[in-house]
Amino acid sequence: MKFLLLLLISLLVVWLWRSGRTAEPREKRPPGTARPTAAKATPQDMVRCAHCGLHLPLSEAVASTSAHYCSTEHRRLAEPGMY
Ligand SMILES: [Zn+2]
Predict the structure, then answer these.
(1) Measured in angstroms, how far is the CA atom of residue 6 from the centroid of ligand 1?
(2) Which intervals of the chain are annotated as region Disordered (predicted)?
């Protein structure tokens, strides 16, 4: 009977030790490590190419005086007199 009690206690200790170890890293993780996915998902202004209709981020768009384009080629084709 004593042996069974010792086994039960040791199992309880192991279980507590293991649950404590698995729970700790998640809580101790600094907030910065979970950020990359959030930073990736930050919304960007989207613009439409005035020539082909392609939607692209404003940072990648080629801007002209009146519209945005996906490339300098499309800007040239849409506004032949200007460039
Ligand atoms: Zn285009």
Answers:
(1) 75
(2) 23-42
pLDDT by position in tens, the chain (length 83): 788 888 888 888 888 888 887 655 555 556 665 555 555 677 889 999 999 999 999 999 999 988 999 999 999 999 888 76
For the question of whether the overall pTM of this predicted structure is more than 0.90, the answer is: no
Check whether residue 49 and residue 67 sit in a common domain: yes
- Centroid of ligand 1 to alpha carbon of 53 (angstroms): 6
For residue 47, how many other CB atoms are within 10 A of its CB? Answer: 20
Ligand 1 center to residue 37 CA distance, Å?
Answer: 29
The boundaries of the domain holding residue 9 are 1-35
Task: Give residue for tokens 């200007």.
Answer: 82
Domain match, 53 and 83 both: yes
Helices (H), the chain: 2-28, 36-40, 72-78
Determine the distance separating the centroid of ligand 1 and the alpha carbon of 72, expressed in angstroms: 9
